[in-house]
Amino acid sequence: MIKLHDKEFKPYLKEAEIQKAIKRVAEEIAVDFKDEVPIFVGVLNGAFMFIADLLKHYPYPSEVSFVKLASYRGLTSTGIVETLLEVPEHIEGRSVIIVEDIIDTGRTLKELVHLFSNTNVKEFKVASLFYKHEVYNGEYPIDYVGLEIPNKFIVGYGLDYNEQGRNLRDVYQLNHTNMINIVLFGKPGAGKGTQAAFLKSEYNLKHISTGDVFRYNIKNKTSLGKLAQEYMDNGDLVPDEVTIKMLRDEVEKNPEAKGFIFDGFPRTVAQAEALDNFLETKDMQINATIALDANDEILIERLLARGKESGRADDQDEEKIRNRFEEYNQKTAPLRSFYEAQGKFFSVDGIGEIEEITERLRKVIKTLEITD
Prior knowledge:
This protein folds into two domains: 2-174, Rossmann fold, CATH 3.40.50.2020; 180-367, Rossmann fold (3-Layer(aba) Sandwich), CATH 3.40.50.300.
């Protein structure tokens, strides 16, 4: 077991197995290009070790160059890919082999294909050391594959976790520790705060309330808080991108947590997709979406009673309470369908004694298939 930053990784692939796969890829390329001098173009930073060993095994004359891309995930389903080092010059009329360390969703590969499609190369093919067939979108062919692997987060042999681990000779897989990530829904008065406190305590989860996170960032005038304040001062909605970055900071500040409770986000399907994409970059996922359901009339009585005690104006006006319920219904209906399609939506009766509701939540948690 090794530790990089806040994560532990366990052995997955030995160097000898990796070298055997690289030798086979080199031989396959040699069969196709033995009668010409191809240009191997490595994709930095991850492919530097792969391309070095690939060329050692390649038996015929060749040339080498590099491109560099930066990929940012978590905002849209396609991601954003920025070119940092352009396609090399003097490749017109030449055969090019693009050398990637790993291909998963295909976002970076799509940008590479576009880059080389705009050149006058004779032909280009793609070689990848690792290939996650489960998540690849299949848009473009991958001509040479070293090793097919499951959709697990790996480091070593050029691959990194926050820039650490690239120099490892073997490959390591993230060691999961039964992490539980929950989205908690509930109408005002349904007892979300009370039950979130239970989940936080019993399962060592970090409760992330979007409202609390916004207030913290604005009060402390962080860069994200200032940005959010600018949007609000102009009467604009704060973009999902800013909210996701705030959530990312909260997740990264709590590496000891066994999981997270997301409260107040997502509110739309687009936000749910953004949250999924962000968690994917951490090799995490939402395990369950739990809605505390309750009869509106009972909740109204509860809120009106709470309003008398707390003095909160929005809990003392029945019409305003019903409007809040209607807004909740409109926003959560699409989200329910989104998470039901993933098999992750659970409805829990939110009426009863606190301990009774807590026990219902325990039963949901027990049904989750959290694998190592």
